[in-house]
Structure formats: C-alpha cells, structure tokens
Amino acid sequence: MKIKLASDIVTDSIVDGPGLRTVIWTQGCKHKCKGCHNPQTHDFNSGFEVSVDDVIKKIRKVKLQRGITLSGGDPFEQPEALSIICKEAKKNNLDIWAYTGYTFEEIMNQNNPNHKKWITLLEDIDVLVDGRFIEDKKDIFIKFRGSKNQRIIDVKKSLINKKLIPHSDYI
Asked: Is the pTM of this model over 0.85?
C-alpha cells in the first residue's frame, strides 16, 4: 500500500504534540483554510508516494521518541494507510496525535460515506486536534493549536463515553 506525503518524515519535532515526536506530513486537504501554515499540502496531485512499509521502517528506527503526529494536509484523507502505520507505531509504544480540519462530530457522523474508514483510523489515535484553522481565531499563545476553535480531544475516553471528552492535560 502507498501513502502520499507532502515532505520527508520529520523526526525530533517538539512542537507537534508533547515530547519528542516523529511527524508524518500527508498530502491533500479539502479544507484549504485561509491562512493555513501548510498550503503546499492542499493539492492532492502534489507531493510524492511512498510505501507504507517504508514509513514503518523509518518509525521503527527512531529513538527516544514519545510518539508520532499525523498532520498535513489532512490525515483523514488517507485513513487506510495511516491506520496501518499507527498500528505499527503502537507496537513500538508510541502515542499517536493527529491534526484534522474535520471535527470530531463530522468523523463520528454515521451518515458520512467515509465513516467506517475514519473510525478505524480514529481508534488508533490517542489525541485528536480537530477543526479547521480559522484565521480570525488565530492565537500564537495556545498550546498545540493554531486557532481557538480547535479542540484537543482524548480520543480513547471519547470513544468509550460516546461523546467528546477534552484531553484533561491540555484544557
């Protein structure tokens, strides 16, 4: 299986979630938020393809990492490939953060044609930062988010409780 990336996998990030992280920048985003800091990741025809196995090999080689972060683009545009990658990352005791322009409610909507694939990926994620970037709500002082409307969600607790639970460490 292949995945489309916007750039090489970045290791040793300290801004894309807590601790030392490996970041996977996916290519392709339907939201095209005004003021997005990654507009080069929007075009579905740009970027480059790599095999999921190659991404997994890179993740297995990282040392001292707390986790991986899925960003982009929008990771939920490539849920099948990322779900495989996340499952392998979990075997290495890495936590998973994901940034998406979709809201938790949109992902959970059973009427959405992508619902099943999105839920499969969501089940592999520990923390979700959801919501489109809104330039008028930009705040450089909030942790791990670009705009005040975005939420940091404890995915495991939210799925168990069948409702959104903010992550208590980042409220």
From this structure: yes
